[in-house]
Design a protein that fits this description.
Layout: E1 2-10, E2 22-28, E3 31-36, E4 46-48, E5 54-57, E6 59-64, H1 77-86, E7 89-94, H2 105-115, E8 121-124, H3 140-146, H4 161-171, E9 177-179, H5 185-188, E10 193-194, H6 197-202, E11 206-207, H7 209-226, E12 229-232, H8 238-249, E13 254-259, H9 261-264, H10 286-298, E14 303-305, H11 330-340, H12 343-351, E15 372-382, E16 401-411, E17 414-416
Parallel strand pairs: 1-4, 1-5, 6-7, 7-8, 9-12, 10-11, 12-13, 13-14
Antiparallel strand pairs: 1-2, 2-3, 5-15, 15-16, 16-17
Helix pairs in contact: 2-3, 4-7, 7-8, 8-10
Length: 417
């Protein structure tokens, strides 16, 4: 692949010499050969020109769900990675919520082999426990050696505190990262939305914010006792931000993420009983949204995620109580973040997080491997079905005004634009 990106404005605060400068970028055989104010197009090189073209390091998402194996009607790995590339993501972490669940080294190898040859890299998570049943630890060391970047029983609480203690102690032997989903199942009970005025008005069973916060308090006490590396995915409450901020001040090796939709939408959006708004953790309150945004700006929350979860129409077009949780989010991630933060903060949020998973962070300079996202930050458009490339169409962002447009990616000696 030999291409020349013409008049691209570079958004890369890590490289002060190039940040916010317009440059031509010559890429040959997947390597950035030259960056200059003007480059003549060499023979055999394809020129890429786009309106208001911007370039950044490739974007990263720490929580993606597809369907393969077992739920291919929702999303195959190939189509999912194509969607990720079209949405600007060069690297994604795949959640363990397939059938069968990836709880052995052979499962991890299968996922990695299925993802080979795509312009977006896929890094699988392994199940923390066998079949994610919460009883016995899975083959963590073997899965790590086969390419699993962390361990997670996807959106399932670790009910047994001793199991989390053992997992954190054991994983230290190979620098493993352990996930713990922040929700106490007993307090959650049969709740399906945030517990508050809206749930009462709609007659829907609520999930108290305390269900998340108590689980986090427990996990932080265990982490303080054991040491190790703990990640708490997709927090959703203001008090969760405070708890994690205090833990970081005390020197604990803790990280956390937040789903983009939990920054933007609140439980007020549930009033039409649209099942696309049924997610887990649930949409909370406006004050929670403000606290989560502040937590990102302050660095307490380590990174954002689309929490992309395709769900087929049969599981969404049912009564609200019976609908499956989840919304797709890859295609709307950039445009919605860019409406919430300024451009530089948006790109910073989309490019950070790889180090936590032991992944190499790309560099934008001559001689480096080309891992780039191409986009335009200023245009506005209402998100609709035409913008969805996922097999499943369950997006809560339908009808939302997005700012900016993704052109594609340059990665793995490929270009998708």
């Amino acid at each position: 692949m030999n291409i020349l990106l013409k008049s691209a404005k570079i958004v890369c605060p890590e490289n002060k010499a190039l940040h916010l400068k317009k440059r031509d970028i010559l890429v040959k055989k997947g390597i950035i050969e030259k960056i200059a104010a003007s480059i003549e197009t060499p023979s055999g090189v394809k020129t890429i020109e786009r309106k208001n073209l911007h370039v950044s390091l490739g974007w990263f998402d720490s929580s993606i769900s597809f369907g393969e194996p077992g739920f291919e009607e929702r999303e195959t790995i190939d189509n999912g990675l194509d969607v990720a590339s079209r949405s600007g993501f060069t690297d994604v972490i795949l959640n363990p919520n397939t059938n069968p669940l990836p709880d052995s080294s052979s499962d991890i190898v299968f996922l990695k082999e299925r993802a080979n040859g795509n312009s977006t890299n896929l890094y699988p998570l392994g199940s923390l426990t066998i079949n994610s049943e919460g009883n016995d630890l899975a083959e963590l060391f073997d899965m790590k050696n086969s390419g699993a970047v962390a361990f997670y029983d996807f959106k399932k609480q670790i009910s047994n505190p001793n199991l989390l203690k053992i997992a954190l102690l054991y994983a230290q032997n190979f620098d493993g990262l352990v996930f713990s989903y922040p929700q106490d199942g007993q307090i959650k009970g049969k709740g399906i939305v945030h517990e508050g005025d809206v749930s009462t008005m709609l007659g829907l069973k609520g999930i108290p914010a305390m269900a998340e916060e108590l689980q986090i308090v427990r996990d932080l006490f265990i982490l303080e006792y054991t040491g190790g590396k703990l990640h708490i995915p997709t927090i959703s409450t203001a008090n969760s931000v405070k708890l994690i901020a205090n833990a970081k001040k005390n020197g604990l090796d803790i990280s956390c993420s937040v789903a983009i939709h939990n920054l933007i939408y609140t439980d007020e959006n549930l009033k039409e009983f649209d099942t696309n708004y049924k997610v887990m953790p649930p949409l909370r309150t406006k004050s929670d949204c403000k606290a989560l945004i502040k937590g990102l700006k302050d660095g307490v929350i380590d990174f954002v995620t689309s929490d992309h979860m395709p769900i087929d129409i049969e599981d969404k077009r049912v009564e609200f109580d019976n609908a499956v949780n989840g919304t797709i989010g890859l295609e709307s991630a950039f445009g919605s973040l860019n409406q919430t933060f300024d451009l530089e903060d948006t790109i910073a949020l989309l490019t950070k997080g790889r180090e936590r998973f032991g992944l190499e962070t790309p560099i934008l300079k001559e001689g480096a491997k080309a891992c780039l996202t191409l986009f335009e930050p200023n245009s506005e458009a209402v998100f609709n079905m035409e913008h969805i490339h996922s097999t499943s169409k369950n997006s809560m962002f339908l009808g939302f005004l997005l700012r900016g447009q993704v052109y594609g990616v340059v990665n793995n000696n490929q270009i998708l634009i």
